[in-house]
Structure formats: structure tokens, C-alpha cells
DNA sequence: CGTGGGACCTGAACGC
DNA sequence: TGCGTTCAGGTCCCAC
């Protein structure tokens, strides 16, 4: 079953965490951090595990960030971009990364990898059990434009549908390709395909124009709902007050392999596609 | 170039 | 009870 987050002192303040964080979860983290973060001035950048720093040494991180104030924070795909007066800090949560404010350097959290100490004695903590997450220092966030396709929620459904073009590769694999469309991960890909009635293994080239539009609308629907519900609580995710998010209650297929489809009652299938657990209804999705 | 598969990680679930 | 094994998954890297 699902993992239990050890609550307690370590998450007693603003705990923004997201397992399997996709666009809605990362957006929720950014929105949660923004009000408290803006204006804070760094007096220390500390890496408790050097591997968290993407292509940089701890001394450089500290030297570059010290004395600079946070002037903005935004999301691009699944990346969190924080502007420190011209110096950019990019955070990717990957699977188990969390960002939250704390008064203490490490508290009781055994998975703290990086933290920023501010002038007001608060700290922004980056915690990550699996050590997949990364923090990097950049002069500009422009490099992300080379890695990522368009944001699916800032374009029209027709424009989004127009991006869904490809050959024989399965549509599920396509949706996970950040260079095509940014921010979609395993969960929301499965959910959108279910709503659109498309089997994950279906080749992109086989999708009719109406089907592509339906998929685009389904993607926008599940992503917007995800944001509205402040992300999905699976595994480690909790809202700032320790309560669970609610988007998972709206999942139609993700994690429901072996259970009946809400639409037709048929048992949902679980297969592995592109190395990812993939869930669908063999009746509703063709 | 497009595509697929393994590596990176370790907590949790599972099997005996 | 306790040990060993397997799984999860975003992105990078490499082979085909």
C-alpha cells in the first residue's frame, strides 16, 4: 500500500513535498513557497550531500548566493526556478524531493540534502530520500527552453493538439517526452489517456485529428484539476498543514490495476510501457 | 535521428 | 521475526 509520511517536527512548518511530482504538484510547491520566500536574503548555502549539486561545488554555491535576495519563483515543466537577483537556482524534485521552510538546519529530517539559510534565521530545506533530486546554479533559465516543449496550460487546446505528432512510438511514451510537452508525468499521462479513451500503446500516428484534440483537452483537464486539488497525495506527499491532497481521489486508472473500471466495470490492466507502470481499461481505451 | 533500455537511489512492500 | 528480493520512477546516457 501507500507509504506513510513520518509527520512530526520535521514537517511542522511549511512542508512542500511531492512524490512523483508532476506539473500540478510542482506548481503547488511553487505557489506555496512564493509568499514566504520572496524578499528573503541568503546568508548561507549548505550542501549536506555533495551529489545534490548539479555540476558545482559547495563553495561556489555559497559564494554565488550569499547576500542575494529571492526576487521571484516560477515553474517551468517540472523544474522550480528561483531568481536570486540575477543568479538562478534550479531545483528538480524528481521522485521524493521536498522543499519546505524550517527554523532549524536539519531538524529531525534524515533526508536533508541542501538548504539555504536566510537573514531572518529561517531556512529553505531541500529534502530527498532517494537522492534523485538536483539543485543547480545558472546564469539564466533559458537553458530549459532547449530541454522542454511548451507549457500545456498556457496554450489553447487546439495548439496543444497540434503538438501531438509522431510516428509509431506509443502515445504514452510520447506524453512522457518533456521535449514535446513539458510537465506531464506517469500519473497524469495515464489519467488523460483514460479520459480520452486512448490505449497507451496506440501509435501516435494512428490518432485521428479529433482524438488528438480530445487528448489535448483531457490533458488540460487533469492538469488543471490536479492544481485545483493541490496535487495528488501518493506516498510521501502532504499539504503544508499535514493534511493530504485530494487529487488521487479522482484517479480513474492510476494505481488501480486489477480493480474495476468506473466506467464499464471491466478489470483495469496494468502493463509496463517505456519502463513505467501503465494503467488502462481494455474496454474504454482502444 | 529516433528509440529503447539501463543506471542512478533507497524506503517500503513482499516472499519465504 | 528477519533476512533477501523487488519495485517505484524522471532524467541522463549510451547502444542500436
Structural class: alpha+beta
Low-confidence stretches: 1-19
> Which word captures the global form?
elongated
Q: What portion of residues belong to β-strands?
A: 15-25%
Tally the helices.
Answer: 7
Please compute the radius of gyration using only Cα atoms. 20 Å
Order of helices and strands: EHEHEEEEEEEHHHHHEE
* End-to-end distance: 29 Å
Number of strands: 11
Q: What topology, given as strand order, has the largest sheet?
A: 1-6-8-7-2
Describe the structure.
25% of the residues lie in helices and 21% in strands. With 286 residues, the chain is α+β, with helices and mostly antiparallel strands. The strands form three sheets. Strands 1-6-8-7-2 form a five-stranded antiparallel β-sheet. Strands 3-4-5-9 form a four-stranded antiparallel β-sheet, covered by helices on one side. Strands 10-11 form a two-stranded antiparallel sheet. α1 (23-37) packs parallel to α7 (209-228) and α4 (157-163) crosses α7. It binds a DNA duplex (16 and 16 nucleotides) through loops.
